[in-house]
User: Fold this.
Amino acid sequence: MDKRPIGIFDSGVGGLTVVKQVMKVMPHENIVYFGDTARLPYGSKSKEAVTKFSKQNVRFLLTKEVKAIIVACNTASSNSLEELHSTFQVPIFGVVDAGVAEALRTTKNKKIGVIGTAGTVRSAAYENMIRKEDNNMKVFSKACPLFVPLAEEGWTDNEVARLAAERYLAELLEEGIDSLVLGCTHYPLLKRCIGTIVGEDVKLVDPAKATAKQVKLFLQEKGILNLHESKGARNFYLSDYTDMFYSISQKALKQGYTPEIIDIEQY
Ligand code: DGL
Assistant:
């Protein structure tokens, strides 16, 4: 039994979709969340910049004595995870491999769509990992950068979001995909909108659930799961003020949280 918190980071509010699953699967765990809102978006930045930011985020979370870290950001998971593993001793989990496993379980016709940031799509992390598991899989990727500011703005299911989704997803639908990986942690916030556009025949794959289960299994195996009976404490930190955080957290987590602002450049 280990009461130390789990650290979770993203570029902004997207990682809350991972926090939600962690809270569901491990309700007793204490959580420290960091959203790098001062430097968002990560999706349009270079691998070097995202890796530098990710290292600083990990260093900040380590000051909170976390027992494990979840990189709740596909862009950082696909571009920087290896470097984080070789730099830090703390167990660090990305979201991509869990997403890949879930996509392989979901597809029936072996045509998988992947949507993510430009950085994630450019890295081809999903494509490579899916094809490594099963060479017969066809993967169609599409960067949907506007979904991130829409999610940060709380515009998750209005006509602007729907128009963007229609434009972005048309070519994937033409390919006949039967499953669509939400390969950016911001995108599950637009799940309803994306689901309406792709229709019932295309299953949406959110890597967050599988990631939370993977982390739980790891903590269990190591004997460091928090078995305390009370609900875990949740603390939220951002690198810059964002007035939407309270309402987005309320929507995503069924409880609004007021974040503390920190200077991430110090780490
Ligand atoms: N939510 C992040 C991801 O999963 C990054 C979005 C961004 O900052 O561009 O990729």
Remarks:
- The mean pLDDT is 97.
- Residues 6-94+209-266 form a domain with the Rossmann fold fold (CATH 3.40.50.1860).
- DSSP finds eleven helices and ten strands in the chain.
- Strands lie at 6-10, 31-35, 68-71, 92-93, 111-116, 138-143, 179-182, 203-205, 234-238, 260-261.
